Amino acid sequence: MKLIIAIIQPEELPEIKEELLKQKIYKFTITNAKGQGIEFPLQEIYRGVSHEIKLLNKVRLEIAVNDEFVDPCIEAISNVAKKDGKKGRGKIFILPIEECVRIRTGERNKEAIG
Question: Which domain holds residue 50?
Answer without folding.
Answer: 2-113
